[in-house]
Write a structure and sequence with these properties.
Number of helices: 18
Distance between the termini: 17 Å
Largest sheet: 8 strands, mixed
Length: 419
């Protein structure tokens, strides 16, 4: 019996999909960008042996209709169906779920699991809700497939207690599960595995500072193949600024931000209580970041512009990244094999890599090779001059492949029939 794995990666306004055989050989990739009302959604699709083709389907209005459109496109493609594949051959629906709370391993999504995931949506409002919509839609589109959740937070289950604990009441923290979780774990798992192969080092012996830099960005310290610190915390909001996220700010800032005029100077406890938590999270998650500073979420434009607002946003981002890199260098006691850039910006912005590496050369990092820095051979590649103790690498991350690989490697997910 043919058994295929469909990896589903839902973002706040995007959706990426990868279809794989059970040996993780890719069959198809697809992506949707700019999903949502009053936006023009772009759909890109290809089988593994063909080039991507893009268009803007008018019927795609949300993540649910996007998923359905992909399934229709796939099974209306004679180049795919002529290979003998049928809908029922998709036996494993593997969903990236950003916040898994205390889940530390992938889990088959049954009703009681779905309810627990719903309860976590408030902690990752830009992503978990989209994933839950897809989980419901996929269940109806492919009712015979087993749905499995793979958590971004699970990679950081190795965080030491003094790292994941906040300096708040222990009883309240325990009751409400308030602690650092960390995210981008599926990407970091992929980065770790492919970087260790590139460096010809066992995963259990490798030390990295890994950077997942995109519209959502984070830094991770990896010691002996395990996460020991990460810039994101209870939610993806903390740490680095992003396209629309503030990153770390003084927690009391939001109450002053929401006030105006004399209200700020004479801010009362009543006013603090009147600011609902969802309003505060909305401001810091969707109305901040470099878009708030510049008016654009396009970091390529920001990185190459001479506008004062753009230069400020660029410098802020570089500064915050370097603060975490320096701190994690100390935590790893300087014993680092490589710093690895990844994510949409880490992979595609030579200007950003150059600015960060120039500030980190003092730590013994390679100086940047300008020619290598502008090339993109794919996979994992070296962009340093080889003159330092720490190699500077770029990794083309692939969360969908990582999800499929983890699914294929777990015997408990492979059985006949639906769970």
């Amino acid at each position: 019996m043919t058994q295929l794995i469909l990896a589903v990666n839902a973002g706040s306004s995007s959706l990426k999909l990868g279809l794989f055989r059970s040996d993780v050989a890719p069959l198809s990739t697809a992506s949707f960008k700019n999903i949502g009302p009053q936006q023009t959604t772009t759909f890109s699709y290809a089988l593994s042996d063909s080039e991507h083709k893009s268009h803007s389907p008018e019927q795609v209005k949300d993540h649910t209709t996007a998923f359905d459109y992909f399934i229709q496109t796939l099974f209306n493609d004679p180049n795919f169906t002529n290979q003998g594949y049928k809908r029922d051959d998709i036996t494993h629906l593997c969903h990236r779920v950003v916040h898994g709370g205390l889940f530390t391993d992938p889990v088959i999504i049954q009703r009681h699991i779905y309810v627990k995931l719903e309860a976590l949506s408030d902690l990752a409002p830009l992503h978990n809700d989209s994933a839950l919509h897809i989980i419901r839609s996929a269940h109806h589109s492919l009712p015979n497939a087993v749905s499995i959740a793979f958590f971004d937070s699970a990679f950081h289950r190795s965080l030491p207690q003094h790292i994941y604990t906040y300096a708040i009441s222990p009883s309240v923290a325990k009751e409400k599960n308030l602690r650092k979780y960390g995210f981008h774990g599926l990407s970091y798992s992929y980065i770790l595995r492919t970087t260790s192969t590139f460096l010809n080092l066992p995963i259990s012996q490798i030390n990295l500072i890994a950077l997942h830099l995109g519209a959502g960005a984070s830094v991770c310290a990896i010691k002996n193949g395990k996460s020991i610190n990460v810039s994101m915390g209870l939610t993806p909001l903390s740490g680095l600024p992003g396209a629309t996220r503030s990153g770390d700010v003084d927690p009391s800032l939001i109450f002053h931000y929401a006030g105006s005029g004399e209200d700020v100077a004479r801010m009362s406890h009543d006013r603090v209580r009147s600011l609902h938590i969802t309003e505060a999270e909305k401001i810091l998650n969707t109305e901040a970041g470099w878009k708030a500073l510049t008016g654009t979420a396009d970091f390529k434009d920001i990185a190459t512009s001479k506008k004062e607002s753009h230069r400020l946003a660029f410098d802020i981002f570089v500064d915050r990244v370097c603060q975490f890199v320096g701190g994690y260098f100390v935590q790893l006691q300087g014993n680092i094999h490589a710093i690895t850039f990844s994510g949409g910006l880490g992979e595609n912005s030579p200007e950003l890599r150059k600015a960060i590496v120039e500030r980190c050369v003092c730590l013994g990092f390679d100086t940047l090779d300008d020619k290598k820095n502008t090339e993109k051979p794919g996979g994992v590649w070296h962009v340093g001059a080889g003159d330092g103790r720490v190699r500077v690498l770029v990794c083309e991350t692939n969360e969908e492949e990582e999800i499929a690989r983890q699914c294929a490697s777990r015997d408990e997910f492979w059985f006949k029939g639906k769970h």
